[in-house]
Design brief:
6 strands, 117 residues
Length: 117
């Protein structure tokens, strides 16, 4: 039996809260979507990359959600993943020597909205 779909863990909630901690077009809708999100997949390696599905009744965001967080200390990049105003997950890129499967210290990240293409 699959563990998915399932509720967000505290760590997954923390990552989404971090990425949605700054203001950008559509952030209030994405924050609302998190309340109705379920995890549909998780990277099998154990890192923080995961996919979510948002309930049908959740509001659609007005912006693309181009937001990322970078930890110089941990050499980890997290990115909010969205499609057509709907939250779809969190992507992770790891550049350091530490084991990326260890839960990163979220207090070391700087969050920024990416410029629109």
């Amino acid at each position: 039996m699959s563990e998915f779909p399932r509720a967000l863990t505290d760590t997954e909630c923390g990552v989404l809260e971090l990425l949605l901690s700054i203001d950008f077009p559509g952030v209030s809708e994405y924050r609302e979507q998190v309340r109705a999100a379920t995890v549909t997949d998780r990277c099998p390696c154990g890192c923080l990359e995961f996919s979510v599905e948002v309930a049908d009744g959740s509001p659609t965001a007005s912006g693309p959600g181009l937001v990322s967080a970078w930890s110089e200390e941990q050499q980890v990049h997290l990115g909010l993943e969205t499609h057509e105003g709907r939250l779809t997950g969190v992507g992770l890129m790891w550049f350091g020597e530490d084991d990326f499967r260890i839960t990163p210290n979220l207090t070391t990240f700087e969050v920024a909205a990416e410029p629109r293409a």
